[in-house]
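User: Sequence in, structure out. Go.
Assistant: Echoing your sequence, followed by the structure tokens.
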Amino acid sequence: MLVKTRGIVFKSIKYSETSLICDIYTEELGLQSYIISGVRAKKAKVNASLLQAMSLLDMVVYHRENKTLNRTKELKPALLYQSIPFEVLKSSVGLFMVELARNTIHEKETNAPLFNYLFNSFVLLDALEEGIANFHLFFAVNLCGFLGFLPSGQYTAQTPYFDLQAGHFVNQKPTHYHFLTDQAAELLSILLTLEATEIHLVKAHRSTRFLLTEKLITYFQLHIQGLPPLHSHEILKEVLS
């Protein structure tokens, strides 16, 4: 059957001389894989650049249940990025976001709130003028909520530690080493109460951002079994430095 849907390209790999296989997170069908023929040919109707990671699409696709690879009928951009491809910091933040999303989201079922969060996050990143260095942290923290393990509590003098295993702020230093304290714990607490339009108000030292980025990756690994190693945060760290 034919399905009309929006999609977010998670990953593209070469298949034959002219084709691609793309993992695309769709609004109507969840995560799907498509073989897209001819996009790398000289006279391709659809340019391969449209299928790079982070691309936002309007699609008409052929869908058959229990089939691992489906095909597309129509592809066009849902949004042409105005700044992400041309700004190193934004593209690095976007690559971190898409790597985190593709390694944590595997469901082939519709999840409209999660799809809208991802789609709107890339739209917002493209439009953002301030607070770009904080955006990957804001994105990761809120993604936790859609995946079922949003951090709870807040940083206070009485609860100055965030226990990564338990997922909440606590009043005593945990007996294990998976925890946050001081500026990193306070920054996490701030991000939990922040609106997207307030991201530019957050002031944090880059060393605090680096630490929180690494600890958030650990947090995902603790709460998602089998999460593979992530690498894009190392590139982001170099750019932010």
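User: And one key feature?
Assistant: Residues 2-79 form a domain with the OB fold (Dihydrolipoamide Acetyltransferase, E2P) fold (CATH 2.40.50.140).
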